[in-house]
Structures are given as structure tokens and as C-alpha cells.
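Hi R.,

Here's the chain you asked about this morning:
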Amino acid sequence: MWRKKAGLVLLVILMGVFLTPGCAMVTWVPEQGIPITSTPSRATVIVNGVRKGVTPLTIWFKRKQKGQIIRIESLGYHPVEIRLIKMTSGAPLLGNLLLGLVPGVVPAIRHSLAYDGEGFNTV
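And here is the predicted structure, written out as C-alpha cells:
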């Protein structure tokens, strides 16, 4: 009998994972803003060869785009180049687990354990 319940629990978990792909939107955003400042202010900011403005400013980048280069130039100073590196964090995965999977699966497991798989009691 416990194998039947374990199979049902596994089925509920897999259904929760595969039928709720929108849960990943809880912690993921397609763009990220990067604030850019300098001392002295009013330095020119160039991204991938295109002038974007002067400091201070925030530049928005698409997370999927690779090879971004930020160049900061100011008269009388050496220019600075910053190469953005795409990194994956475990925080979105943990957030999705805690905010999506756990609240959905825990009640399903509780429900499946409350019944022995022979049907529901109806009034």
C-alpha cells in the first residue's frame, strides 16, 4: 500500500513541476539595471561602442545578451572598461522552490496521505 502512495506522491510532484512553468517568473526578470557613477561625475558612458549618456545613470541590459562592454571616459583620466560576465545564482532556484513547489506539493502530499487511494468520501 505504501508503494501506491509513494507513486501517487511522485506523480503529484512531477505534475507540479511540469505543469507550472510560470512559477519561474516569481524571481526571474529579463532585464537588469546597472547603476553607473563616477568621480568626478559627468563622465561619458559608452556601451558596446554606443554612447549612452553621462554619469550618474542606470543602464538596462538584457540578461541573455553576452559580451557587454561598458566604457567610462572623462577628459584628463584614463578610460575604464568593464566587461560584464553572465553568472547564474542559486537564489532564483531556491526562491522558486520555496515560493512555488513547496506550497503546491505539501498540501498535495498531505491530501494523498489522508486518503488510502480508494476514493473520496462524499456526503
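One quick note: The first strand starts at residue 31 and ends at 36.

Cheers,
M.
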